[in-house]
User: Fold these one by one.
Assistant:
Number 1:
Amino acid sequence: MQMGKASLRFEHPAFVASWASVAGKKEGQGPLAAGIDVTEQDEMFGMENWEQAESAMQKQAADLALEKGNIHRREVRYLFAGDLLGQLIATSFGTVDLEIPLFGLYGACSTMGEAMGLGAMCVNAGYADRVLAIASSHFATAEKQFRFPLGYGNQRAQSASWTVTGCGAVVLECGKKAGNLPTSHIAVTGITTGKLVDMGTRDSMNMGAAMAPAAWNTICQNLEDFGVDVSYYDRIITGDLGAVGQKVLLDFMKSSGHDMAGRHMDCGLEIYDRGEQDVHAGGSGCGCAAVTLCAHILPKMQRGEWKRVLFVPTGALLSTVSYNEGESIPGIAHAVVLERMEV
């Protein structure tokens, strides 16, 4: 059912069948370590270069999500996946052996929300019984592409974030498969698709400021479309605004009549301990929201600690070309309504 200007409420929600996360050594030293399925000490993942390492991480997360759900890859109709690299090379090389029809996605750090939203639409419409949503990032591949080679040893601004080395994979399935009940109680019951918001930010070392207005726009649109207020959700969780972006978002929301203090969380502030780990403003990258979803959010919902969550991965849609040509940095945020259902 269409809701308002940009949202959908699903008549046939897509249930979360299984999930898995794989992350690097630094992420394994953070607050979410116990929930991460696999923490690799070798950030090369046994490969010859950083890009191959990210591909290997994607393949490992996908295989593990399928294994945990006792699902064969032939039972998955479509794959929705993406990363931060040009031409989505981490995804194209990482998932080729799965032999699952692929929709390659680029929403920058919002990609996990985009993947889950499109996958849930597909399941709800009856176009697929099962889909797989994946998003990944790697600190070294992101630094190499967007900032400086690691050997350069450049000084980082305090507003800068630390790209997460990690991948999250989620299998979504229809409510009933061959007469069986869903394997989990968590379902995607609705989505709000974000629009591009560009307020003229040009500082590539302050992604939080670029993305916060988009998060504000999408969250407000969700509340308007569904006719609810922030108390409708146990948590409203953004992707990777970090400390700077979170303050901007909370100020924007309060000016719009929505006080999210005590109800908002940001994956970039959850995945690292900023007091003990040198990550400046917090975590970022496609893997930030994806790993936090699989290592923290879904387990809490499965245990019944949270009943309803608005998951809002955020993305800064810049490239090295656009930045070097002096363009501003548009932001986008996609919202996914996650609910614990009684089945």
Number 2:
Amino acid sequence: MRVVAVGGGTGLSTLLKGLKKEVGDSIKELTAIVTVADSGGSTGRLRKIYNIPAPGDIRNCIVALSESEEVMQELFQYRFKGDGLGGHAFGNLFLTALTDITGSFLEAVRLTSHILRTKGSIVPSTAEDVHLVAKFSDGEVVQGEESITEYGKKGGAKIEDIWIEPKEAKAPIEAIASIETADLLIFGPGSLFTSIVPNLLIEDIREAVKRSKAIRLFIVNAMTQPGETDDFTAYDHLDAFRRFTGIDRIDGVIVNTKMPPNNVLRKYLEQGQEPVVPDVARIAKEGVAVFAEDLIGEKESFVRHDPDRLTDLIIRAVRNEILSGV
């Protein structure tokens, strides 16, 4: 089957690590459509200087799908120290340099993917220099992915509306083509308002998804995110995704049911993050198939979906559950 994963951040790159193992077997073609609205860190600094789309999430996805030598993957994730280049990831600088040389961000992504021998295609949701803007319940309008999250952390106000500027930003034809020919569209996991939703705020992508006859899977985050999804249950994640993107039909939802170890959980609680409540019955009542299993890793000191467990569940869900009912 042809699979398209839509998102950004750590969530999407984690998912891709598992999905790439199925390429050539269950998966015929794999495409990642990645947000480029990030505004923090190395990415944010490069955007201000070169007026390019955010390279950070693209870099992470290229490394996640890479079949090159481990040292090459480490090189692209390497961050410089000290003054001047301090904090910059080598891969971000590489993508920026290639964009400047070729005159095309899309070509820079394609060439970098070729160099790192990715087992799938990585396509930015737009090749334009876009910015995320959100209106909060207190009337405040905030621009920039990082600033939106930080403002939300101050407490009280919730995101009431979110959009990209320029609003007429176009998607690459490769992104539209992959959606139109997909058998399976996957949304998430990742930061709901700043990694997943931004891709669907681009009209070309949103309309292509609406036209697509592909099965649509939504993966709920394992933990809430301060400033974005405080107190959100699994149903709240799905509901917000549908409301803010206008994508009404979701065929299946994947939910983690495993609680993190106490020592790990305590660290997250101190940061204002809580396990997402798996209120699966509320989702199922709306006629959406729910797949709830223990999906987070056991040996790590942070809470993250296990790529292999997640991929295994996706494949089983599509083969045995969702396909039989579509």
